[in-house]
Amino acid sequence: MFAPQGPTFRELTVQALSSVERGYDLLAPKFDRTPFRTPESVLAPVSRVLHTLGPFDGGLDLCCGTGAGIEVLRQVCRERVTGVDISAGMLAVGRARARTTAAAPRVEWVRADARALPFAPVFDLVVSFGAFGHFLPRERPGLFAQVHSVLRPGGRFVFPIVAPARPGSPGYWALLAFDAVMRVRNALWRPRFVMYYRTFRPSDVRAELARTGFDVRLHALPELGLRPDGSPRCRVVVATRPPGR
């Protein structure tokens, strides 16, 4: 839900009629008071999985926004944590609100496009929370290749993924309606604002990660509930760059 101090309807409308980059620059000061920020109920289960896989030396939060994933990385990384985002406004808010401490790991904030990451293979862990709807399906292979390129051999790419809504359910119709509105908006208005929730399908994502060269495993997140058939509502993807590649 939106907090009383969150963006007004007018502010959200202006954001929605902007580009992705400009829209988030405008939203940044109030972003943490919106439902778009990844909640602790998602961060905590992913952190639990990461603790079983780590510790790690260097971690990257891909499309970090104001830094919801930065604190998760600080719990499991010993030397270096980096947040990267295309929005200078989001990075500025994250940098200003981040806890400062002399203890490791050091935290860096870098403005860059996730489709052209300015890093060598120096990370042991890359995480991302809630950003993949901003990339069209045809962009995902390049995005995954970028992540692969900045990981050391044996490094992990970790992110939560929600099971598709059951056809005919309220969630299914809500997501279908949202994506339809976005497609109409982008057909009629420029610049485009890319945010599609139904295009990030687990089976497609898993296949694309494998084609990129990752070994892919899924871990259930039972804290986030079960579907009517008993399967998890949410899993965490652990994609590993194999040693030697």
Automatic annotation (TrEMBL):
One of its GO terms (biological process) is methylation. It holds the Pfam family Methyltransf_25. It comes from the Bacteria. One of its GO terms (molecular function) is methyltransferase activity. Keywords: Methyltransferase, Transferase. Transmembrane segments: none annotated. Residues 60-155 form the Methyltransferase domain. PANTHER family: 2-METHOXY-6-POLYPRENYL-1,4-BENZOQUINOL METHYLASE, MITOCHONDRIAL, METHYLTRANSFERASE. This is Class I SAM-dependent methyltransferase. It comes from Streptomyces halobius. The lineage of its organism: Bacteria, Bacillati, Actinomycetota, Actinomycetes, Kitasatosporales.
